[in-house]
Design a protein that fits this description.
By secondary structure, the chain is α/β, with parallel strands linked by helices. It contains 15 helices and 10 strands. The protein is globular, with a radius of gyration of 20 Å.
């Protein structure tokens, strides 16, 4: 380890053990559905350290990121996001990946005809960009103290398969070659499960929800991203989506799902997901009152699509918080993860969250 690096730190100094224990207990009460904890505030730093293959750059930017998050307080828990783009899981099966000028990762499909699925084999959990991201995590964590990792961008079975097989051909094959589609989805699901097991078994306190950056104790399950739903009819999702999501949910005793697409046509299917723990959705693609009524008893997080945020709320996050708080009952559990691009916390936004969500049921720091 190079001792002359410009950036050094000790994670235990930023997050003392007793403070971490307090925050973890507060999250535990929240997930246990305690009546006195209905809202969590977990501010986020806007400093990005992911999507780079330069280990020293990742280390330098992560230190800046975590120092900011430590200064924000409330219930944020430190973790290193092992994220190298959305194709991370797909890259384990081969295919050429690229980075564009903006630093985003892309991957070329490897399935040209349906029978190509039978050439694929289950890769080791640590393969492709997943392994690259974990190598970076280990490099960063080696000399800054114990910091748990957050899993890579855990795209669900449909999302991942659609990166291996060109999307339009993949959907057509659901009609013409369902056997091959199921073969691929089963293989991809096996791989997703193996990655979750690797993180859970090899890293203490690993965060098993990749997006949003919330904390969910491992006994409640894992988190996946399920945005491909918008492209499918209810019949197709029930055949090619639901069974594989349920395999993951049953393996880990539950699942938290991010879906920033329009998926109201699949509400009935989502209601059949085993131990659905929570939903992270996007307004206006999801109506807050409707989603809260349709899925009571789970945890909700919600963002606003940029044009709607600007047009309907004048770019004001406080106005958006008031909007969703008026439509999602205070008895529902919600997580708010505000951040500011200037890396300073907007206390007026925190005040609005506390005002709207009943101070006695939010973090004690609101009172």
């Amino acid at each position: 380890m190079d001792q002359d690096r410009e950036y050094t730190m000790n994670i235990q100094e930023l997050f003392p053990a007793d403070e971490l224990a307090r925050r973890r207990e507060h999250w535990a009460q929240f997930w246990r559905n305690d009546a006195d904890v209905r809202t969590i505030i977990a501010p986020q730093s806007g400093i990005r350290y992911t999507n780079t293959l330069d280990k020293d750059e990742a280390r330098r930017e992560f230190i800046r990121h975590i120092e900011v998050e430590a200064s924000l307080g409330y219930d944020t828990l430190p973790a290193f996001k092992c994220v190298l783009g959305t194709p991370a899981l797909a890259s384990a099966f081969g295919g050429t990946w690229h980075r564009d000028e903006g630093g985003m990762f892309w991957i070329d499909p490897i399935i040209e005809k349906p029978e190509d699925v039978y050439r694929l084999t289950l890769p080791p959990a640590m393969s492709g960009l997943v392994k690259e991201s974990v190598d970076i995590y280990r490099y960063v964590a080696a000399d800054i103290g114990c910091i748990p990792p957050r899993v890579p961008d855990m795209q669900g079975p449909l999302n991942t398969a659609s990166m291996l097989w060109r999307q339009e051909d993949f959907i057509i094959a659901m009609y013409d070659n369902p056997k091959e589609v199921h073969h691929l989805l089963s293989l991809v699901t096996d791989y997703i499960i193996s990655v979750f097991h690797y993180f859970r078994d090899n890293f203490e306190n690993a965060e098993l929800v990749s997006w949003p950056n919330l904390h969910m104790p491992e006994e409640y399950g894992v988190g996946i991203i399920e945005d491909f739903t918008e492209l499918l009819s209810p019949e197709l999702y029930r055949e090619f989506g639901l069974p594989y999501v349920n395999r993951i949910a049953r393996e880990f005793n539950g699942v938290f799902i991010h879906c920033c697409a329009r998926f109201k046509q699949h509400y009935d299917a989502f209601a059949e997901i085993y131990n659905l723990r929570g939903l992270d959705t996007m307004y206006p693609f999801t109506e807050p009152a409707v989603i809260a009524e349709r899925f009571p008893g789970i945890v909700h997080t919600m963002g606003a699509h940029a044009p709607a945020h600007q047009q309907e709320f004048g770019g004001s996050s406080r106005s958006f918080v008031r909007f969703i708080s008026e439509r999602i009952p205070q008895s529902s559990r919600m997580v708010f993860m505000p951040y500011d691009s200037a890396d300073t916390l907007d206390e007026s936004l925190i005040d609005t969250i506390c005002e709207c969500r009943m101070p006695m049921r939010v973090s004690a720091m609101c009172v």
